[in-house]
Amino acid sequence: MEKVFGRPETYLDTPLSFCAGCSHGIIQRLVAEVIDEMGLQDETIGVGGIGCSSCRFFDIDAIGGAHGRAPAIATGIKRSHPDKTVFTYQGDGDCTAIGCSEVIHAAARGEKITVVMANNTNFAMTGGQMSPTTLMGQKTTTTPAGRSAEANGMPLKMAEMLALQEGAKYVARVSAANTKEIAKTKKALRKAFEVQKSGEGFSFVEVLSSCPTIWGVSPVEAVKRIEEEVTEVYPLGEIKKPEEVA
Description:
The chain has helices at 24-37, 70-80, 92-98, 100-109, 149-152, 158-163, 179-197, 212-215, 219-233, and strands at 44-48, 61-64, 85-91, 114-119, 168-175, 202-208, 237-240. The protein is an alpha/beta fold.
C-alpha cells in the first residue's frame, strides 16, 4: 500500500504533551512541514519560549529561552550564524507580556529572524492568568470577573504594532480553527521563512489558537470561540508583505 501521508521529518516521532484540542500540535506540524518542503532541516535553529510553546518536538538544533527573551536569543544566533534559518516559537503571554520589548525591537532593527506566536489569549501553562491579548470580559484566574478596560486596559494587537516597524517585512495573522484557515496558516509560515531566506528582514506570524482546558470548554466549542469571538478582536490576514512574496 502506498503511503500518502505521514509525519514530517522535522517533527519528532514522540507523544505530544498538549491537552486535547490544543492548537500547538497543529501549528508545530505546519512549521515542520514548511521546513521539510524548503529543505531547511539541517540548517534551521529554533528558539522556544516559556510555557506550552517550545521547540522540544522539532528534530532540529534548538534552545529554550528565558521568559520572553526568545527574540533576543534568536538575534544572537542569527548574527553569529547568518547562513542559518532561525525562528522563535512563542505563546502570547511569553511574546506580548514580558517579551514585548524584545520582539518590538527585533522588528525595529530588522533582524532577519522569524517569530511564530500562538495566541490563545492567556498564560496557559502557568495557570490561566490574563495575558495582554486576553479579550474584554474574558474570565481568567487573575480576572475572575472578566477583563475590564478600567482595571486591565485593552487587548494588545501585536501584529499591528510590529507592522508599523520599518524593519518588519512580513506580518500576518492566521488561525488554526479549521482546515481552510490551517491551509492559509501554512502559506503564511512559508512566506515568513522565504522573507528570512531572502535577507529582507524580520517576519512575524501570529496564529489564533485554542486552549480548551483553560477556557473551560470542549475542543469543538474552542474552535467556535476562535471563529466567532477571537477573530472579531484579532482580524485575520496578511497585514504587511513585500511585493515579491505577495
